[in-house]
Amino acid sequence: VLEPVLPAPAEEQNGTDSAKAPKVNCEERNATGIDRFTLQILNVSQDLMEFLNPNSSDCTLVLFYTPWCRFSASLAPHFNSLPRAFPTLRFLALDASQHSSLSTRFGTVAVPNILLFQGAKPMARFNHTDRTLETLKDFIFNQTGIEAKSDVAVTEEDWEGPLPSVLTKGIDWLLLFSVLFLAAFVMYATIRTDSIRWLIPGQEHEHQE
């Protein structure tokens, strides 16, 4: 399931405006002494809000994914390389099927979904179907004004993890829930329509004829 894509002219205009004045003024973390910049994946018992400081202006890029989504799998190596490109920012990922309350809260039913947080507040959503390292770097630069390291590229290690690039078998519970919700809504609307038809004077007689 894909997120709706913004019109190209609007995206180009937003990119131009962002280059002049960043939309999000991020407080860059001190990367001194950190040898390896990696993506952190939250497990089912970890709460995203525990990793986001509401009293801080630092920025975190959060990926909502599912291990059986092929779009999430193709995005994985590119997202794995981002922490090396932006060592002063934080990068988190979580399985949306294991954190359904967060998916509902931030409107991330479709996966993969990428949100830029400042503190604990979502500031921007990545709305491109071309999910590559370059488009991700452009998105971060347009939103924050922080430039990526030029020597960073997707490597073989990025294909291996920490975010899995190989699909795992499973049921897409988010899609199943969406289908069931739609079916229930259609059934409810049909029943309501039939009930109203019988309550309107003359409708019963016309139906019998």
Automatic annotation (TrEMBL):
Record keywords, A-Z: Membrane, Transmembrane, Transmembrane helix
Gene3D superfamilies named among the record's database cross-references: Glutaredoxin (3.40.30.10)
GO biological process: cilium assembly
Domain Thioredoxin: 2-145
Organism in which the protein naturally occurs: Picathartes gymnocephalus
Bilayer-spanning residue ranges: 173-191
Region (Disordered): 1-21
Pfam families for the chain: Thioredoxin
Keyword Ribosomal protein applies: no
Domain of life: Eukaryota
InterPro entries, sorted: Thioredoxin-like_sf, Thioredoxin_domain, TXNDC15
Protein name, UniProt field: TXD15 protein
GO cellular component entries: cilium
